[in-house]
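Quick entry, no commentary yet.
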Amino acid sequence: MYIKSISFEIKSDEINWEIDNLEFNKINLISGKNASGKTRVLSSIITLIYLMRGGSDIGVEGFSWSIKLIENKIEYIYDLKIKNQLILHEELKIDNKVYFSRNEEGKGKIKYETKKGLNLDFEIEKNKIILAFRRDKIQHPSLEVIFNCINSLYKFNFGDTLGKYTSYTIKNGQNNNDTDVVYKFKKGVEKFGDKFKEKIIQEFNALDYNISDIFLKEIVDNSLVLVIKENTNDIEQQFISQGMFRALSLIIQITYLEFRKNEQTIVLIDDIGEGLDFERANNLIKYLIKNAEGQKERLQLIMTTNDRLVMNNVPLDYWIIVDKDEKGKINFYSQKTHPKNFENFEDIGLNNFDFFSGEYYKNCVWGD
């Protein structure tokens, strides 16, 4: 399953943002000027997924979403509207047929799949998401596709530490955060063996680093940290340079997802390449795109950037340029929405960043 499109609106006395039917490909690079809405697009997805998973902090502003998901050519459209911490409307359509719908009173109907043509009445608390609290593999098996999707979506902020200062605490073999990179490395080695570690070293060194090993080391308080061997030096994660650790952390996460084989995943990466030099940022982008292309139907990749070096090394086919107007609406430009602009620019001979900086994405149209 992957995200085909999303619409989002938030309105309050202080905030006004709107996205109207932003369509995605399997591989996407969202670019734009600062404060144009790049991170807002990812945040709108993450906030919705949080609520769909059962998150309870729904805020006081007026929010509305419409997300379209595709699985084996079957279309799932989920709509959610919230205001003053109450659910005003929630509806799911599968192939344009209403699967469930509820109103602001929390009352509605849901399809009962074991009885063909039967819709069950239900009533739920006004501040509860029906999707999050109606999981039942017998009565509602079609919802499992959505649950699998929303539980396999990961967001990484490349401008952050990406777990550099987070260790794995040994506590009955358990860890509370499945996204922690130390835990992911430990879990990957246990599940997939040396091939998992060898793949990480290979991909990491392809970025122009030079390590011969990566392993776990127990430190104080029964905690594990990552250690890399560079030349003859063992370097614990807290002493690895920030840019180097970001790249390593992301490769560990992506490699783990790749080794899971049959599980579909959506990966969001904000500010990709931030803090890396040109060559390594370029190599990292190539790695991510190649990995996503190799995983075909199993991985959807959505990245954001305003770095000209990153832009120049991502094919225009994957671009989505966002541009927020004075009313707070995020306009967007891609091969799907403005095909002539993209096609005509390729004949000019300039680099990809010029397409953005010269605003050719808005006006690169001429007659035959």
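second:
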Amino acid sequence: MEKRSTLAIAALGAVVIAITYGLARFVFGLFLPGIRDDLGLTAVQAGFVGAIPFASFIAGVLTGPKITERIGPREAGLLTTGLATLGLLGIAVSPDIALLSLAVGICGISTGLSSPVMADSVHSGVPPELRGRVNAIHNAGTSIGVAVAMPVSAYLLGNWRGAYVSFAALAAVVAIIAFRALPRRTATAAVTVGTSPHLRVSTRQWIGVASLSLLATGMGVVSSVYWIFGPDRIAAHGALGDATAGWMWLGIGIAGLLGSAAGDLMDSIGTATTHGAALILLATALGILAVAPGSMEAVMTSAALFGIAYMSLTGLYLVQGIRLLANRPALGPVLPFLAVAVGTTIGSPLAGAAIDVSGYAHSFNFFAIGAVVLALLGGVMRSLYAVSDPQWN
């Protein structure tokens, strides 16, 4: 294991994830109205562009482990942040839907690559007893990017090209730092991937990660209504101003930083308890927005609870996936994170259909009940306990 400062790897990983997940992925929705107006995109075209990062994310997250294990975290980190720089700059200079589609696709690949890269970096450069904490801190980096979205949207919403040039410049700086600071040697570089018994994934391990991914899919479904229709819920009520959505995103981002404690909570109160508690917080956030969309205090409370819950849950899936596949750390986050994306894709049209049929309040309450049911299901699923069983490692 190369000697690296644990604090440096934790901080750098959080910034890398803030770039790839926050700025290259989640911020796009805030700027989409301006992009649509300037490029003359129809709603159908905008929907098509919005779907591209999902497909490219799948490509990135599926190839990320092999790439990281073959070339090492340092070069893979440069590739990841370099692609983010290229994609963000491509969005900034897009004259039409063709280049915009290519650029957001590149951003999606960068997002997919980043989790395996940072997971392997942690396994290569961080002592075992601190890996859960550092991986959770990395995951909470998404909150940094989401929080940045609010001031950027407030001051540069009318100049989306300038905003994306700034994002690209920041990504380029992070790319240089990542190349200089990440471990050179992968955690599995000493042997040929897929041939050593140390690297083969057992049937029990696959079952554990698959069941964990089932829970992650469910979380993606129940959280999708908030990500997609949270601002619409407020706008439909009409009691608050147009800037409320930006304040919501800031609340989600800042509170989501508390999700960095997911690894420590898993160690102190148990993985299943942490999972259940976070889902109850998620259900509460949905319920508050269902009943009180006209109160700024209620909206910000809901946003804070949602940020804590969502970042804690994604952190938990990251840490537990790596623990279940301790012999393949770059592979650990792949299926759970892919499952969250699939769940969000499934949940978004379901939420839209539910809103059309029964309205916002009933739909948000319905998804809140789904989160409670998922919490109960997680309490009995083997994947949240399996890491303590040596047969799973």
